[in-house]
Amino acid sequence: MPLTNTKTKPAFPEFIIIISLLMALTAFSIDSMLPALAQIGRELQVQDANDRQLVISMIFLGLSLGQLLFGPLSDSIGRKPAIYSGLGLYMVGTLLSMFAVNFPMMLIGRFLQGLGVSAPRAVTLALVRDQFAGREMARVMSFVMTVFILVPMLAPSLGQAILQFAGWRAIFGSFLLLAIFALTWFAIRQPETLAPENRAPFTGKRILSTTQMVVKNRLAFGYTVTAGLVSGAFIGYLNSAQQIFQEQYELGELFSIYFGIVASSIGLASLLNSRLVMRFGMRFLVRGALLVTSILSVIVLITTLLLPGQLPFALFMAYLMLSFFCIGVLFGNLNSLAMEPLGHVAGIGAAIVGSLSTFISVLLGTLIGQSYNGTILPVVTGLAVLCGLSLLVMRWAEAD
Length: 400
What we know:
The protein is mainly alpha-helical. Helices cover 81% and strands 0% of the residues.
């Protein structure tokens, strides 16, 4: 039964734009900040250059905890109120960061941003699932993912442009405007999709019991941990990217261009993944991508140690492009593999898998980032070790 008159529902292209806007807010809030980290560090008097990376890590920490809240909450009070609550919290965090007078105030704001933006990230998938199934749902998500892939490619350049003309606080102003615009459009045009009779109570017991189910299920838990390890390596790169490109390789404002080029390899893998999966299967692709990244990282690690200076930039870019193509394949399949045994608790199960894997990745990614020492060694070592560990965890998960 439709919840509202179908005449009030947005047309398919409009629905795609609304959902894409909500989902893109997360990537935009992370990637457009990268060019501003040095300026933020100077203005807020951050003594250790590596501490600037916490501006990125804190939003991921908020994301990991927020998914546990807003996923189950949307099953209880409806999709729209949950997204309203999250975006409201996101805007509070944005204002706190925009007017930060010291670094701790900035980090609290970023944590609240992550907590808030976890709502559209977790709930929009459920909102799509409420209205579409099978091929139609796949069609919707393919359009949404195309937009989602473009954001990391373009966001650093947008952040760089705003930084040149108006300073880093204006970047937070752009977050606020985008959130208000997305919230208003969503509120006016998108009807509620979860009928009252289909709602589930929001209880700690339900969250705890599903968490226990995920942890006790070898496949679900194994692939969740693997997703966390892979994402940890990626966040380690994300945390260090500004220092590596702008300071170590002295690229200055060209950083955003090269970052976008690397991001395009992840996007290409995501776009090709559906065809690759049909031909080779998810497990084969995941194993192959992990193996290639591990071997490639070990080769680059040894080469960098043997060279008197740093790895030539062209070789480093080639390594990143190949490695992150593999990472794009992994992103496209690990969550699906983790969710395979949890079909009967898909909504809350997705929230728990997402929360746990993100929490693991934040801890590991922060450790890699804080180890930055003016070389690419911590990032390359992180990719080699964590992808190698992922292969071992996969073997354990799939053992009879």
